[in-house]
TrEMBL record:
One Gene Ontology term, aspect cellular component: plasma membrane
Compartments (UniProt record): Cell membrane
Domain of life: Bacteria
The ABC transporter domain, residue ranges: 1-231, 244-481
Protein source organism: Subtercola vilae
Protein name listed in UniProt: ATP-binding cassette domain-containing protein
SMART domains reported for this sequence: AAA (SM00382)
Topological relation to the membrane, as annotated: Multi-pass membrane protein
UniProt keyword annotation of NADP present: no
Transmembrane segments: 508-526, 532-552, 559-583, 589-609, 616-639, 659-680, 710-734, 740-759, 766-787, 793-810
Alphabetically ordered keywords of this record: ATP-binding, Cell membrane, Membrane, Nucleotide-binding, Repeat, Transmembrane, Transmembrane helix, Transport
GO molecular function: ATP binding; ATP hydrolysis activity; transmembrane transporter activity
């Protein structure tokens, strides 16, 4: 990479950076958060174009790369924040990110399982990725990178959330890759890993190269001086010097909860208590319980006062390991993130005082040396170390009785670590008990006054004083013979996902629920009216469901993309108006075909316009499709200001043919739904579609063409509306410019009932079709039972409300379950 520069709004992220990566070497890139390491590697992997400079790869020079081109050239990257798609399964994440050639040597499941085994990831292929832990997501990201057999492998903080066993396995795989000729770029904040793995090292500071050296020819002190621009006297602040008989101010007596049992801890004022152990042995669960996020049995007292889980939820401050997911609200500003837990302190007569808030937050962030463009800058614009300091600021501003930190320096540079250690020590000396969990035994050795070591949910060692060494901590953690416990019980078993749980967490559970509701409702109405299952009534219901079902299936695509299409209703009415000029009694076959062709063309144009407005003109999906909603309604009235143009009787008759009482059109729509479902689950088009809706940035990182996927998606939405319009012609029988708009909200209702997420990434065509059937059935039932039209709207509203509650509660439970894994 030669003379690379990158500017954002005139601010330099990289300036004249040149780095050479040799064949078959591990080249470490070091630097503080914000030094430009990730930006440089994003340029190398094609995610970010440079403002200046060039890239020489395999003898060819490039001004910039794309993710697809970089992958073709043999570049693979493991991002610091995993580019995984939470709404998709483990297997689907592999399939969408990897070329089909990776799966050519065996069955898809066998190849995928081998990829996971290669990095030590014990997860079911059908598990939804959002249920995985952060460490498992990193392992999945690593598996994707190794699967490509890359010529250049970029690892950006790959070990941050991993335990020692997983790190050793990763390093073994890296050495194997290097031996086979792969070049590896390794970004880390841990100098010990540089010593263990790297051949050469380059240091960045403030977006510039500060030096490149052979690892064996430079000392740690010299590296630290290059990284922070000054010599650090000591990484860790002095430990507590208070007398041994100082009063205990923190006491945990035999508490048990999800993932841990019979834990006791005691700490004195000024002490920092560490929680150690191999990742996944109950440390995080213990900290969440102490923060009041999980129930527990036993007693926790601070300063002589006993606290229940509910008390701790409001009085303890918790710094989670995954600051992006749990620690920060990324769409809010630095000020809002820092102040949110202490708003009561800033209120005057029930309103928040802006001046009090600004003064307190500004003072806190200044004391913590937070570097931010302004207090109102998005917190996502800060470096990882500064984001972590914002989390600490929020914790301290809330004046907690207990400060709990899970992996407080994960993904944080050396300079910021020193600041965080100082802050935690000062908090402890002020009288606030501080408890931290860390997978870095060296960190616990240098920072903590007392350490408990956990294994399989039990405390297997309590260390203090000279006992707190890396060797003793690691030895206690790995030599334990305790048995694992089941969450919440203490029985010896390992909790794993089951087929039933995966189904309930999957996309088809809402469809199964809809089938049950449809059957129960039908059974009840049948007891009230024996004619309910008559041939005419079945035909009427299913034929009505056809038109709505086709439009709802189109709406499903828009929602899967994370968007929405408000134009589907007016488009359906507009297409019927077009048909009313061509598909009439006495019209020739050619005229009818021409009319259908014009309908298809009009649908494609509308879908294309929607896609272009959203992707290239940067309209929001609501704004873009609302524009077409209004325009299409106007065009329909321009073509026909009143009803007119009767649809051909023969055409209606042919479309209304049946097999028994079931319309052929409904059977055809079911087949189309099944085919669409197959493509959604088993083909790259469907994976790309759901990837964009799940996480656009992650989808872009794995090589999905976002613009093409979105535009094609909206074209397909309009083509499904065309199918719906063809069915509507048989029901309306005449060109009516006012007939379509009502289908917009009704289609959204059907899709929501079918379980498709309004946030994108998950849903089914089958569920949307069933949602349309249920809505039609409800309307039919009110008529059969002799209820007024008011009840039609009441029942529809109740259905939407129940669906929203059921799916929201189910999803929140899945999220909580994932956090406990």
């Amino acid at each position: 990479m030669s003379h690379i520069s990158k500017f954002y709004a005139g601010v330099a992220a990289l300036t004249d950076v040149s780095v050479e990566i040799r064949p078959g070497e591990v080249h470490a890139i070091l630097g503080e958060n914000g030094a430009g390491k990730s930006t440089l590697m994003n340029i190398a992997s094609g995610s970010t174009p440079p403002s200046a400079g060039s890239i020489l790869m395999n003898g060819e020079s490039y001004d910039s790369l794309t993710p697809t081109l970089a992958g073709t050239l043999g570049v693979a990257i493991v991002h610091q924040h995993p580019a995984v798609l939470g709404d998709m399964t483990v297997e689907e994440n592999l399939r969408v990110a990897l070329p089909d050639s990776v799966f050519a040597d065996g069955s898809n499941d066998e190849v995928a399982r081998a990829l996971l085994n290669g990095v030590g990831l014990d997860a079911h292929l059908k598990d939804r990725v959002e249920t995985l832990t952060l460490a498992q997501k990193h392992l999945l990201e690593i598996a994707k990178a190794f699967a490509r057999h890359p010529r250049l492998l970029i690892l950006d903080e790959p070990t941050a959330p991993l335990g020692r066993e997983a790190v050793d396995l990763l390093f073994g795989r890296v050495r194997e890759a290097v031996a086979a000729g792969t070049s590896v770029v390794y970004i880390t904040h841990r100098l010990a890993e540089v010593r263990e793995l790297a051949d050469r090292v380059t240091v960045l500071r403030d977006g510039r190269v500060r030096g490149t050296a052979v690892v064996d020819e430079i000392t740690d002190d010299e590296l630290l001086a290059l990284i922070v621009g000054r010599k650090l006297e000591s990484t860790f602040p002095p430990k507590s010097l208070l007398p041994l008989d100082t009063e205990v101010n923190f006491d945990v007596a035999s508490i048990s909860g999800p993932g841990f049992v019979d834990v006791s801890i005691a700490g004195r004022r000024g002490e920092i208590i560490g929680v150690a152990g191999v990742v996944g042995n109950g440390q995080s669960e213990l900290l969440r319980a102490l923060a009041g996020l999980e129930n527990f049995e036993g007693e926790v007292s601070v300063g002589g006062t006993s606290y229940t889980p509910r008390d701790l939820l409001h009085r303890a401050a918790f710094m989670p390991a995954d600051r992006h997911r749990e620690g920060l609200m990324m769409s809010l500003s630095v000020r809002e993130n820092a102040a949110v837990s202490a708003l009561k302190k800033f209120t005057s007569t029930y309103l928040v005082s802006r001046s009090k808030e600004l003064d307190a937050v500004s003072t806190s962030l200044t004391e913590l040396s937070v570097k931010a463009p302004s207090l109102d800058a998005p917190v996502g614009a800060l470096s990882g170390g500064n984001q972590q300091k914002v989390v600490i600021s929020r914790a301290l501003l809330s004046e907690p009785v207990l400060l709990i930190a899970d992996e407080p320096t994960q993904g944080v540079d050396v300079g910021a670590r020193v600041e965080i250690y100082r802050i935690l020590r000062e908090a402890s000396e002020s009288g606030i008990p501080v408890i931290i969990a860390s997978s870095d035994a060296k960190e616990l050795e240098g920072l903590c006054d007392r350490v408990i070591v956990m294994s399989r949910g039990h405390v297997v060692a309590t260390l203090s004083g000279d006992q707190i060494t890396e060797e003793i901590i690691v030895s206690a953690a790995v030599s334990s013979t305790t048995q694992s416990i089941q969450v919440g019980t203490g029985k010896s078993t390992v909790k794993r996902s089951t087929g039933v749980r995966r189904f309930l967490q999957g996309d088809y559970a809402p469809s199964a629920l809809l089938v049950a509701v449809i059957i129960l409702l039908g059974a009840y109405v049948l007891t009230q009216n024996p004619q309910y299952l008559g041939s005419f009534n079945i035909f009427s219901m299913l034929m009505t469901a056809c038109g709505l079902g086709a439009i709802a299936m189109g709406q499903t695509i828009a929602l899967l993309l994370g968007g929405i299409d408000l134009s589907v209703g007016p488009l359906a009415g507009f297409l019927v108006v077009i048909a009313s000029y061509f598909i009439n009694d006495g019209a020739s076959t050619g005229t009818i075909v021409l009319g259908l062709a014009l309908m298809v063309v009009a649908a494609i144009v509308v879908g294309l316009v929607n896609g272009v407005l959203i992707r290239y003109l940067k309209f929001t999906p609501i704004a873009a499709t609302l524009t077409l909603y209004i325009a299409l309604g106007g065009f329909a009235f321009l073509l026909r200001d009143t009803q007119g143009g009767y649809i051909s009787t023969d055409f209606v008759t042919n479309l209304s043919s049946t097999v028994g009482p079931v319309p052929v059109a409904f059977i055809a729509l079911v087949v189309i739904a099944l085919v669409a479902e197959y493509f959604l689950r088993k083909r790259r088009w469907g994976w790309n579609l759901r990837a964009v809706g799940s996480n656009e940035e992650s989808a872009r990182s794995v090589g999905v063409s976002i613009n093409r996927t979105v535009i094609l998606g909206y074209i397909l939405v309009s083509l499904f509306v065309f199918l719906g319009a063809v069915i509507l012609m048989t029901q309306i029988g005449i060109g009516d410019p006012a007939a379509g708009p009502s289908y917009t909200l009704t289609s959204i209702t059907a899709v929501v009932l079918g379980g498709t997420s309004l946030l994108g990434g998950r849903g089914t065509f089958i569920g949307s079709l069933l949602g349309a059937v249920l809505l039609t059935q409800v309307l039919n039932a009110t008529t059969v039972l002799g209820l007024g039209s008011v009840f039609q709207y009441v029942f529809q509203g109740l259905l939407i409300l129940v669906a929203a509650i059921v799916y929201s509660v189910a999803r929140s439970r899945k999220r909580r379950a994932a956090e406990q894994l």
